[in-house]
Amino acid sequence: MDILIIIALIVAGIILFLVEIFIIPGISFAGIGAFVCLIYANYFAFSNLGNTAGFITLAASTLACVASLFIFMRSKTLDKIALKKNITSTVDNKAEQSIKVGDTGIAFTRLALIGIADINGHHVEVRSIDGFIDEKTPIIVSRIDNGNILVEKQTQTI
What we know:
alpha+beta, CATH 2.40.50.140, 2 domains, 5-stranded mixed β-barrel, 47% helix, rod-shaped
């Protein structure tokens, strides 16, 4: 009867261990339950069956956890529950594409190096190369680098 209790605890611990790793990530009741089941199975073996049986149980439970993890990862079960959807949508950047170097606008928000500006009637994200620029300050596009619009304070009015 003692061996059946130990086997049941190890099996429950392994199932909860696999649930913790593959279904419920993070520390949850499954992980805590797996830890408690495996520790209690080893404690029960040491206290009721002796040191030899305890060390055999410890080795068997460790080997069973590692083997079940390896078998579960190699099986097709993960392929069935894995997400396989590719993201094909893109961000609408028509406003950014219509902006050219030399265009002028007004800082819509405070540009604490990055902010929103109104350029050619479009609200776009810009980066300041002059440092902080207060809102409602006239700005000019100094360059466009990899989709980043770099602006500076407009020193003269045109």
